[in-house]
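Notes continue from the previous slide.

Worked example: a multi-chain complex. Inputs as given:
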Amino acid sequence: MLRMVNDSLRRVPVPMVWLLGALPFALLLWDIFTGGLGVDPVQEVEHRLGRTALYFLAGGLAVTPLLRLTGISLMRFRRAIGVLCFAYAAAHVLAWVVMDMGLLWGQMGRDIIKRPYLLFGMGAFVMMLPLAVTSNNLSIRKLGGVAWRRLHKLVYLAAPLAALHWLWTVKVNELTPVFWVVAILALLSLRLVVKRPMPWTRPRRA
Amino acid sequence: QTVTGRPSPLSTDQTPNTFEEITNYNNFYEFGTGKEDPARNAHTLTTDPWAVQIDGLVDRPGSYGVEDLAPDNALEERIYRLRCVEAWSMVIPWIGVPLASVLAKVGPQPGAKYVQFETLVRPEEMVGQRRAILDWPYVEGLRLDEAMHPLTILATGLYDQPMPNQNGAPIRLVVPWKYGFKSIKSIVRITLTDREPVNTWKQLQASEYGFYANVNPEVDHPRWSQATHRVIGAGLFGGREETQMFNGYGDQVASMYAGMDLRVNY
């Protein structure tokens, strides 16, 4: 059963993930051009991009626990998931800079320093930047596997920051951002609790 | 059914937002925390019959109907700017009556210094009230001079229509120089009192929301700047507009706060 799942996953070409990952963006474009964004399109664009980035972030963090717990391997797709996350995060930041803040650089600068939720969000984004830049084979070779791995552990910090960034913007405790903070923390703790593949995930010798 | 109001010199000459915008972008947590939740959920609210209990330090306490408080022949149109504490703005053509005219009907006693308002609590019709995200009922308050100010109205309609449920039917407060959360919706109780009311948002987070809540570009919300805001309806690249002191109504209202430290009394 497990082998069947992994065999079929191996046949899925990675570009398929890119294609699927572009869907939320295509839907957003569709909504922009058909006026489907409601009364406040700026907020809708900004928030949807941010939420999508967080979904990919959680997805990327789920790959290892999933492998250890079930033996299902999505490792081949993890780089694409991560880079998609960064692309949505970058678009989210761009929407904030251009649409929401209207290029008021002074106010943006002051706000980032003064407002923890912006500091958290921007911090998460800045941490993801080197990860996105080094997400290619050349960088792995140049840095060496150990250093590359160490660098990419930054995501363990960036992820909770990004989730808290969302939670911190709301005025009352809303269920959705609370859920995502808990989900991200749960995914991170799973790595600590389940440190190696569970016995049932190993192929039995014939 | 149309509701008409006499034009008022207190109206702004700015172009109002569309009916569509005004009725589909609401903060009315009784019907959910999303901006579009009230438009989706508020149709369940029964607004007729409706009674407003007026009590406390008044000569003629009692239960009043909407028509008693805002009779058709007294209605005025007030086109006001609205500035939300979340840093966005709209322009809305309200229909209503000065709150002062309502207070005159019930006769505030000399000891009355504040007016406290309460929103309906009816979780079976107000889906947002089934969770304790705020301490229901929603409570707001004004100092008596603020309540008596000619700009302060009780609104029963907008755009020549009866007040849509999501905007606070059948009767709500509008105080255009204060952040929108002061303008309490779907009022069932008005109490004249000698003590400063504890308004709901202040009770939840006093460091972020005060009693006065006057629009003030110089006093930031701890989590965001109040110096500028987005204009709803300006499109994707509309940018931001500078927020004006007292939302541009300073000439009319600033004297009420003379000598007060607005950084303390935010």
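Summary box: Chain B has a mean pLDDT of 97. The helical segments of chain B are 19-23, 37-41, 66-69, 99-106, 144-148, 200-204, 250-253.
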